[in-house]
Amino acid sequence: MELFLLALLVMAAGALVSAAIALFPVTAARNKVADILGPVTAVAACLLGLAGIFSGEWAATEYRVMPWGLPFGAFALALDSLTRLFLLPVFVLGGTCALSGGISLRQSDPTEHNLGAHWLFFLILLLGMTLVMSARDAVLFMLSWELMSLSPFFLIDFNDRDRSVQDASWVYLVAAHLGAMALIAFFALLWQESGSTLFSEMALARHGHVTALFMLALLGFGAKAGLVPLHVWLPEAHPAAPSHVSALLSGAMLNAGVYGIIRSFDFFGNPQTFPLWWGWIVTAVGIATAVTGILKALGQTNLKRLLAYSSVENMGVILLGLGAGLIGAGRGEAWMTALGFSGCLFHMLNHSAFKGLLFLCAGEVLHSTGTVNMSQLGGLQRRMPFLGTLFALGAASIACMPPFNGFMGEFVLSLSLIGGLSLPGMEEKIGVLVCMTGLMLVSGLSAAVYIKSYSMTFLGEARSQCSVEPHTTSPVFQLPLLIPAAACVIGGLGAQWAFGMVEQAMTCIPTLPDSLKTVSIAADENAGALLGKTALFCTGGLVLLVSFTVLRRLLLLRQGIRRGPTWGCGYQYGSARMQYSPASFVEPAARLFASVMGTTMRRHEDAAYFPGHDSLSVKAPDVVQTKFYTPVFEWMRRLCNSLKIIQNGAVNIYVLYILITLVVLLVWGMA
Amino acid sequence: MHSLFQFIILLLLIIDLVMLWSGRMLMLIRLSAVQGCLLAALLLMPLKGPLTMELALLATAVFLLKGIGFPIFLRHICHKLGIEPNVKPRLGRMFPMLAGLVCLAFSLWLEESIPHAQGLFPPLLLPVALTTLFCGLILVVGCAKAIAQVTGYLVAENGIFILGIPLITSGSVWFELSILLDVFAAIFVMAIAINHINSTFDSIDVARFRSLRD
User: Per-residue confidence at B188, pLDDT binned at 50, 70, 90?
Assistant: First the structure.
């Protein structure tokens, strides 16, 4: 615990020093100092944090209450297996993103941005996330939540001269605070009913409005996790933010929403007494989020926006596991409960690894070519083989290709749903079958999305000059990306070991009754053993594949076979335009899912004997945003503008308001 | 003594209404000066007991500040900034006058309705104090010029001062003196603000502030 507290102190101290640098006018020298100090502090704090969470027994709970001088609440922190599990991506990805961000910002204009301010907010974000996961007091939790929610606003607004970036950061801020409102109501209600702000006492109290509390938690934490229909900030904020920030937001901050939902179960008592429809609601929201996210991702041409929608999809998959766990707990199905909850946590860990890697790769692509628009990219694998390989690894992981971690996570979730087929009642079986179909559909579409993103960006011919001559950097600068890449491989080949960490968190989510807990732990152990065997087969398959590839190459080398360009066997007039574009790649799927995706396709086809110019564009605007949020906020804007009759800028009219208020109060007092 | 006290209170009321009718800046400042002198005179006629040293000191302070200091200061500002003599009433002259009369009626109703200690307020003092307070606020609302609004603020404060007269005991004299000091600081700050407003907007017309709203 001491090391963990030291990590918090280092973050706070680093933030203070960065703030001191940020106060002075921007110069190249100051920015250089800030760009060294910020990442070094963040990496040091993350290493200390990692040492802190691994120093004690993984399943042990360490609790510490410290004085903090406020008249209410308490500075109560704890490390239990659930907190340790959620802190793992925060520290691993936090350190990686700090390293990667420090390197990429060194190559930017030295006086364009205030890097002191940037690293100040980065460290505050890290601090906020760490405190959120470890807080055991409602007041401390909400303060930390605000730290975590406010700092990304400034991080997203890094390129604040760009109007779209400004808009994205405002969309984020509004969404974050709509969620925070629900959370304030949630904790206020808990406080009122338990008379204490400590989580331990809130958990002991009997609450009368559990359903209202559950809905508030789902709304407040769901907004942070990006659940449909509260996801609209994600595809705006992630492309606008610098890539190392997007990676941290997607890989670590979204998890805070899931963490919050799981932690809130502690306040609702025995999970076997939860209404069964809670589980079905969570499952339905999860499926809707996953399907919406992946379909939207399929229609994107902006690589970072595609990744953002993919994060929405993965949050949906995580929630699906959580819902399965709740249904299983309600029905006393140990297999479904154990694998649902642990699948949810395992996929959360995996998502942090591959999404962090993919966002950092996208950042490198942006830095090298100046764009993440896939219709202008292509052929980067030959020019940046190291980066291309890492992206391929991340894409294979997220597309659930064995033997990587994405496959293992969804494998556990599928096992949980298979266990759900033993639920009583036909309608419940049908519900589980729908979930399984949804999960399979999402996995298949996910493969299509990442084949598209990898092939359009790295394979084929360059579609524009920016990808013909990318500004390549030394692979040494891309070394931090090896950390999440290694996590993707370890999560796959070492799935049994990684799943072991998740298994131990089962004691915390939610506090299962002893009868169910024992059987659930046994189910988890069985699943862990199954993962171990799968990983062994995968490793064998991988070794065979590599051996055959090497053997083939050796055999071909002896025959003197040379490599040539694609279609170079006689057809000499190929060009970059004679290949799949992002739009043509998704056209069949866009036609199939047009009603769900809300896609608009525009095709200009020349049907003459000698065709001339032919074009196709596919756009997938966010229907929730365009048809719901935009009209609602437009209506609110008009309402607020109409209230400007009251706020008219005339000082003496304001005095008139005081006079009227005075008279009304006097009359009211006399009446 | 009692009838003189009542007469001064009536004079204060008439001055309130004349101020609402008045359309000239210098007239407003002069009337506020007269009000200040009358307030000092009221203090010299204690309702209970003999005239004490403390009351005399307070009366002198009120006379020096409200009767002489503030008017001279405000006139100096007018001359320095070359302000037009016209007050530029927003609501015309009739409407503020009518509003003043309504406020007088409302204050008379309040005198009947507000529960207060028997014999604490001499006749007419409470409604006149409240009317003065309301008239000050009406002046602030109805005048476009910042300096006229400062005068309105001064009149409103005079209303509060009148309310405090029956409550003056040995201890509250110092309380009144501190309020006076507070008013002095406020007028001083407002004058500086007016100066800045004039240099920023080339006018002290508060309607220009509309450009500051979002």
Answer: low
Q: Please report which confidence band the pLDDT of residue A348 belongs to, taking 50, 70 and 90 as the band edges.
A: very high
The neighbouring-strand residues paired with A494 are none
- Predicted TM-score (pTM) of the model is 0.79
Query: Based on the domain organization, do A332 and A410 belong to the same domain?
Result: yes
User: Do B141 and A652 make contact, defined as CB atoms within 8 angstroms?
Assistant: yes
Same domain, A365 and A479: yes
Percent of chain A with pLDDT over 70: 97
Q: Are residues A396 and A493 in the same domain?
A: yes
End of a domain among A555, A580, A597? A555
Task: Report yes or no on A617 lying in a domain.
Answer: no
**What ipTM did this prediction achieve?**
0.78
Virtual torsion, Cα A217, A220, A225, A227, nearest 10 deg: 90
The residue from A529, A555, A581 where one domain ends is A555
B83-94 pLDDT tens trace: 777 777 777 778
How high is the pLDDT of residue B92? 79
Contact indicator for A224, A255 with CB cutoff of 8 Å: no
The reply to whether A645 touches chain B by the CB within 8 Å rule is no
Tally of structural domains, chain B:
1
What is the number of domains present in chain A? Answer: 2
Q: Is residue A14 part of a domain?
A: no
Q: Is the pLDDT of residue A378 over 60?
A: yes
Residue A35 is encoded by which pair of tokens? 């760009």
Q: What distances in angstroms separate CA A447 from CA A395, A401, A406, A451, A632, one per listed residue?
A: 8, 8, 11, 6, 35
The answer as to whether A155 is a domain residue is no
The pLDDT assigned to B51 comes to 80
Beta strands in A57-125 (DSSP E): 62-66, 75-79
CA-nearest residue to A669 within chain B is: B114
**Statement to judge: residues A548 and A410 lie in one domain:** yes
The whole domain housing A640 covers 623-670
Domain membership of residue A83 (yes or no) is no
Q: Based on the number of CB atoms within 10 Å of its own CB, is A25 exposed (0-12), middle (13-18) or buried (19 or more)?
A: exposed
Contact (Cβ atoms closer than 8 angstroms) between residue A318 and residue A226: no
Contact B211 A658 (CB under 8 A): no
* Each residue's pLDDT tens digit, A220-264: 999 999 888 888 888 888 888 999 999 999 999 999 999 999 999
CA A107 – CA A478 distance, rounded (Å): 13
How far apart are the C-alpha atoms of A387 and A226, rounded to whole Å? 28
Residue A647 contacts by C-beta under 8 Å, 6 or more apart in sequence? B213
Q: Residue A488: which pLDDT band, with cuts at 50, 70 and 90? A: very high
Name the residue of chain B whose CA is nearest to A652's CA: B141
Which chain A residues are within 8 Å of B134, Cβ to Cβ? 659
